[in-house]
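Supplementary material to the annual report.
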Amino acid sequence: GSRLLRGSRGGHVVIRFALGGCTNRPFFRIVAANSRRARDGKYLEQLGCLDPLPNAHGEKVAGLNLERLRYWLGCGAQLSRPAEKLLGLAGFLPLHPMTVTGAERLRRRRQREQQPEAAPADGSAEP
Amino acid sequence: MAALGARGSAALPARLRALWALPARRALAADAGEGKAAQPKPAFTDEAVQTLLYKMTGLDLHKVFRPVKKGLKPPHYKLMTEAQLEEATRKAIEEAKTKLIMPPVLNEREPIDDVLAEDKVLEGTETAKYVFTDLSYSIPHRERFIVVREPNGVLRKATWEERDRMIQIFFPKEGRRVIPPTLFKDENLGTVFQQDRHEDVLNMCIAQFEPDSPDYIRVHHRAYEDIEKHAKYDLLRSTRHFGGMVWYLLSRKKTDGLLIDMINRDLLEDATSLITLYHMLHPECQSAKEAKEGKLQGIDLIKVFVKTESQREGYIQLALQAYEEAMATSSAS
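Predicted assembly:
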């Protein structure tokens, strides 16, 4: 752990998503908090937000306070995996390798689903 | 069509720069260099042009401080001496001057078309695009980073409309809506203009749009065209939109209606300032050369202008005659 953020004993600062909103309507706040706190509990600072549902213009709106993010990263905060993926999509960090892997796996699964459809279709259309 | 440019903004006083939140000078250095290489054309923002436009706007205190719909309060009465009344009038004039500061006239902004990264691997993973806004508090809105990650993996800068929407969502400004009201569509503007509410529409437009957005320019031009068609110039007199309207008419050489209106209302100084501005904007026209040679003033200037440049000569001659007769009878009696 970093020498800088020595709050109370144990735990480290993470930048992660805190879930809010209501039933069937999620809303994430990007938050810097002690890792041992509850997911939606008391945090050190809110660094942004993400609305996972697309709006009327077909966009998922996300806000990131890059200045404060840079401060916390400079102090030695860690990032959760979804936070890293989001920042990779935003262009602040390089693309997360799992994003690439996930995309390739999805593509391969879709190909496999199309091929068995094609093969029995050919088999039934032939005779 | 003459360029309504921000090129001459090097000459802009510091007060107006801060008020209009124009970008830093170094960004405009390229434009300033070009402007000097070509003929130094007077811009909307020059001191001389602004003083002339301001004089023409007039200062009707009753119209500027017309009652605005506010909460209902019982009226305030004060007992004042003559000196206090003069002091209060002077303060009112100062306040009216701040209310009459003209909104900027800028060129239409260039569309943003910048791709930051292309990641073909991400194609097909997402269904909607992500819009990321930088929420750092101390950056001016013009320099804020707003990027869009499309479903095909392209990371590009957001368009101007997306930028305005996102900035209004995260940093809301009073009087501005996230989605512009349907009032500003072309079909609906006609209805409002028939009710003679040009000033209200223009005030709403200034609150809603940025000065260099195409919507702002389109609404303003529609308003000015409608006023010029029906000769409703007095609607905007003593408001902050008058200068912009005069500038628009001057650059398109449609000043005849305005000239007639001014002469009919016995505003000869305004008419002469109008013609001086015309000569500043179009120095190559014949009346400008004659005026410079003869160093004409007042009514002679108008007569020369009417003979050479105007389309509706007959009407203006009639109006001038009527004015001169009125002057003669009033001086005789």
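The beta strands of chain A are 13-22, 25-34, 45-50, 59-64, 78-79.
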